[in-house]
Write a structure and sequence with these properties.
The structure is a single chain. The chain has 110 residues and is α/β, with parallel strands linked by helices. It has three helices and seven strands. It has a five-stranded mixed beta sheet with strand order 2-3-4-6-5, with helices on one face. Strands 1-7 form a two-stranded parallel ribbon.
């Protein structure tokens, strides 16, 4: 079975939306919420905090931004894994979703 990257993006967006995640369009890191976009490895799911949350987290003793990023990454990874997708974390805390086991993306090495 072959998956096109745009089909995979649509599947990931649908799954996240159905699970109740706030999705935003495009890849503008100034917009808060989850952003889903194509990447050479599959689909990139990136989370950007709101300005209000960032301001609270940047106050003295406010180390909650990293903890929240870990929680969001775990929730997204857990959801996508439970649906049969292969998931890997990016060093910056983003999540890369690969096709379901047994599938491939046209033009990508398997």
């Amino acid at each position: 079975m072959s998956y096109e990257v745009d089909e995979l993006v649509a599947q990931v967006r649908h799954a996240l939306d159905q699970a109740g995640f706030e999705l935003v369009g495009g890849v503008d890191r100034r917009m808060s919420g989850l952003q889903v976009s194509e990447t050479p490895a599959g689909v990139l799911v990136a989370w950007t905090t709101s300005h209000g949350f960032t301001a609270l987290a940047d106050q003295p003793g406010g180390d909650s931004r990293d903890g929240m990023r870990v929680a969001v990454q775990a929730a997204v990874s857990g959801l996508m894994t439970s649906l049969g997708y292969t998931v890997m974390g990016a060093p910056n805390g983003d999540v890369i979703v690969l096709v379901k086991d047994g599938g491939d993306i046209a033009g990508m090495p398997s």
